[in-house]
């Protein structure tokens, strides 16, 4: 196993560990909210429970996608399989849309028929406050792990779990209004849950499309500054980056002394590659195009036009 494939496997294992922990917690939270909501007739609690069930399904999608993403590069996928993690986040987005439809249609039906069945007891608030505390802990844990591991799938799931927090707050408010004599507040808050789920789905899709559309992953000026600092470089231009946040591919053009030998120019290119990888650990590969100083190439003005 190469160093790069070993690193990819290690990254995948760390992501999988986070997803398994979150899966168990989400499943426990979903069961508590849904079954108590079913027993008490609360549409908003059932809706929140369904939302949490989709969280758990999303965790399974994440586990499958990260297993695929961890596979090493091969002849058919010379850049590796990292985008399977992005595809997994898209599936989570679709699941969120399905959850929004399920929750929203149920709430609309209750409002249209005037069927308000919620029965609020102290236990209702105990269940919601307890699951809210768990969701807050899960969200904090996932966001920290996602930033540390630079994992799109974990960050997508963290956004999903964060929406659970706001949803639970809305459900608690709805239960309080029902207890005060406003039974229609329960399905109304279920509609608020629907809107929160849709916003969560939008955030997941936006992050995935950023990767799939090859949006620049690193600031061009920062990459250029690192490469320009290498001794012997006369200029840097045409800096491009793409990939996922955890696996970035970079290419750039450098100007060198026209009298420099091919061997020395190649060594300079290796030094630039090492400098960029050292500054940006997420960079997997740096392709350096070497040009003699004064050759404008595809840019106008040569080095002076950086």
What do you see in this structure?
The chain is mainly alpha-helical and 306 residues long. The protein is built from 8 helices and 3 strands. The protein folds into 2 domains: 3-212, Alpha-lytic protease prodomain-like; 220-305, Cation efflux protein, cytoplasmic domain (Alpha-Beta Plaits, 2-Layer Sandwich). β1 and β2 form a beta hairpin. α2 runs antiparallel to α5 (152-179) and α5 runs antiparallel to α6 (185-212). The protein is elongated. The model is unreliable at 1-6 and 300-306 (pLDDT under 50). This is Cation diffusion facilitator family transporter.
Number of extended strands: 3
Overall CATH architecture of the largest domain: Up-down Bundle
> What number of domains?
2
Q: Please name the CATH topology of the largest domain.
A: Alpha-lytic protease prodomain-like
Question: What general outline do the C-alpha atoms trace?
Answer: elongated
Q: Any low-confidence stretches, pLDDT <50, length ≥5?
A: 1-6, 300-306
Roughly how many Å apart are the termini?
41 Å
Q: State the secondary-structure class.
A: mainly alpha
Strand content: 5-15%
CATH class of the largest domain: Mainly Alpha
Written as H for each helix and E for each strand, in order along the chain, the element string is: HHHHHHHEEHE
Query: What strand order characterises the main sheet?
Result: 1-2-3
Instruction: Please give the share of residues in helix.
Output: 55-70%
Biggest sheet architecture? 3 strands, mixed
Question: So how many helices?
Answer: 8
